[in-house]
Amino acid sequence: AVEQTLSIIKPDAVRKNLIGAIVSRFEQAGLSVVAQRMLLLSRAQAEGFYAEHQGKPFFDGLVDFMTSGPVVVQVLSGENAIALNRELMGATDPAKAAPGTIRADYAEAINKNAVHGSDSPTSAAREVAYFFATHEVNLR
Ligand code: CMP
Question: Can you tell me the distance from the alpha carbon of 27 to that of 34, in angstroms, rounded to the nearest whole number?
Fold first, then answer.
């Protein structure tokens, strides 16, 4: 089925001028960008987005990192978009990510891993709505 998923190009990848390279991978794999915005997350925005990780040992560092510079938040649409995006990203830890994936090629470490992608239809719905209004994501 055609799905939408929420993607974030994280501060490390933005700093390394990788926005275009990462978007190219999505587009070449058949995912379309249907909404996109560049912004500097506030701490409250980052904490709310990652609320499920509150209390974990890496939470404060995750919020520090995600607010350390601009990110690109985007909605990707396509057949099987949620799983396809996760395939393109590779494993959370770049050391474990398959060769040729975004994280294997561009990420430095588990806590600076270039991209985020929704992990299920439930989280995709929540995460898309976290950043975009309905009228912004129903363009195609
Ligand atoms: P992401 O897919 O954005 O979701 C939560 C993020 O927490 C994850 O990517 C990692 O970048 C980050 N993180 C930092 N440290 C860890 C860790 N030890 N285990 C899992 N995720 C971590």
Answer: 11
